Amino acid sequence: MQKSVKRSQTYLGLALVIVLLVFGYYLSGLKAILPLQLLAGVSFGYALTRSRYGFAGGVKRLYMRGEASLSKALLLLFAFTSVVFAGIQWKAASEGALPAFVEGAGDFIIPGTQNVEFVNLATLVGGFLFGVGMVMVGCCASGTLSDLGEGRARALISLIFFVLSAAPGQAARAEFDRTALGQVGFQLHLPQVFGYFGALVLTLALLAGLWWWVVNYEKKRKEDNTSLDPYGDWEEIEKPLEPSKTSSLFSYETYHKLFIERWTFFTGTVIIALTAIFVLVTTESPWGVTSPFVTWDVAFLQNLGVEFSEANFGSYLEKVERGLLLDGPTIRNIGLFAGSFLAFLLANRFRIRSGFSFRDGIYYAIGGILLGFGSRLALGCNIGALYSAIASFSISGWFFLIAAVAGGVVGLKIFQGKINIIPIPIHCEREQ
Q1: What band does 1 get if pLDDT is binned at 50, 70 and 90?
Q2: Exposed e or buried b for every residue in 397-423, given b needs 16+ CB within 10 A?
Q3: Does residue 263 come out as left (phi exceeding 0), alpha (psi in the -120 to 50 range) or beta?
Q4: Model pTM?
Q5: What pLDDT does 396 receive?
Q6: Which of these ranges, 150-159, 180-189, 231-240, has the smallest mean pLDDT?
């Protein structure tokens, strides 16, 4: 095993920290909140990479490996965040704030209710398409940025097509919502019916039900001897080192513990939850990833002469007009990429990872299109439409969950053995 640090990557990591500090200082001159958005993004990216955390993995890992460590971590993430969000929302409501979708709410809205979306057929179709896309490319929206920061070339292909298909998805949802079929649905913030305590209890009960199902599925896979070791995919370099009696504070062992050793999913859960809470408190809006992709797409296509209607893209046109560096979610996404890049640099693990065929590249592009179009058709991804929505007590999050999981499972069944990142899982091999 390596017993020394590749100083070149460590120095690059330190240089990146300096660049981020300078960039944050520059952003502070534009808008006071922007450096905090950058900090939140770096925290998200570093935690996602350091703990090998992923929202798409909650489905893929359970299906492919038959073990529920990440799925259970995600359920804990949802539960912990929901408890804190309940307190934040209750306090705002007690002071007279209204849900964002209520007419007359104005600027005094309950934080998080921006993600209480109208549920209709587009939500389900978009969520399903997104689920298929996320298993084809091996990640969701946040994962695309973090994988790119880790040097995975497939993420670049996916991201390009993700962004390019975001604006068409946004337009499709806006047009569909104006049709008679698009108006068939509902919009519900659970506290409107159950109160905040009741909404929290219901949310935790539903999460507990999912926990029970996940644990029993894992138990069945273990009984069938098709469940793999939760630590079986850890690379040698990221495993904890054996304790040494001769190691000092300034040693490779210390550096390994601080910057290389893989965090557990539980550690990732805590850091991501705290950062998501930080985002809600500082911006009064929950974490989201794909809305900036629409903004980037609009900015790019406008330069090519494409015109966008005010009815479908009003807020995005305003963001482009103001400038992308004044868009907080854009800055947060930049920070997420940088945080993942930083994690691999400090761990001396960064390298460009390709190793896929032309056919695989086509699949990544198609998956990126499904991610971009599906996420905007459903008005969000695994972050905005699922995690932030459920934690904000929107019933739309639960419908997106059903659709995305269904799409993910169908995608895994269709593409297993056909894409290099989806081998045939052990339980399917034994059925053949």
Answers
A1: very low
A2: bbbbbebbbbbbbebbeebbeebebbe
A3: beta
A4: 0.94
A5: 98
A6: 231-240
Residue 1, in any domain of the structure: no
Could you tell me if 394 and 189 are in contact, meaning their C-beta atoms sit under 8 angstroms apart?
yes
- Domain housing 213: 7-429
CA atoms within 13 A on the CB side of 365: 7
In the structure encoding, which two tokens stand for residue 392, read together? 């904000």
At 152 the three-state DSSP class reads strand
User: Within 10 A of 106 (CB to CB), how many other CB atoms are there?
Assistant: 10
In a domain, 388, yes or no: yes
Question: Residue 404 corresponds to which amino acid?
Answer: A
**For the segment 4-42, what is each residue's pLDDT rounded down to a tens digit?**
666 789 999 999 999 999 999 999 999 999 999 999 999
3-state secondary structure of 197: helix
HSE-up of residue 133 (Cα within 13 Å, Cβ side): 32
Cβ–Cβ < 8 Å for 266, 53: no
Q: What does the alpha-carbon distance between residue 170 and residue 185 come to, in Å, rounded to a whole number?
A: 18
Give residue 370's Cα distance to chain centre. Answer: 16
What is the three-class DSSP state of 353? strand
Q: How many domains does the chain have?
A: 1
Give the list of residues 6+ apart from residue 394 with CB closer than 8 angstroms, or none.
Answer: 113, 115, 116, 117, 188, 189, 190
DSSP-assigned states of every residue in 45-64: HHHHHHTT--STHHHHHHHH
Backbone region of residue 393 per phi and psi (left: phi > 0; alpha: psi in -120 to 50; beta: other values): left
In a domain, 112, yes or no: yes
Is 2 inside any structural domain? Answer: no
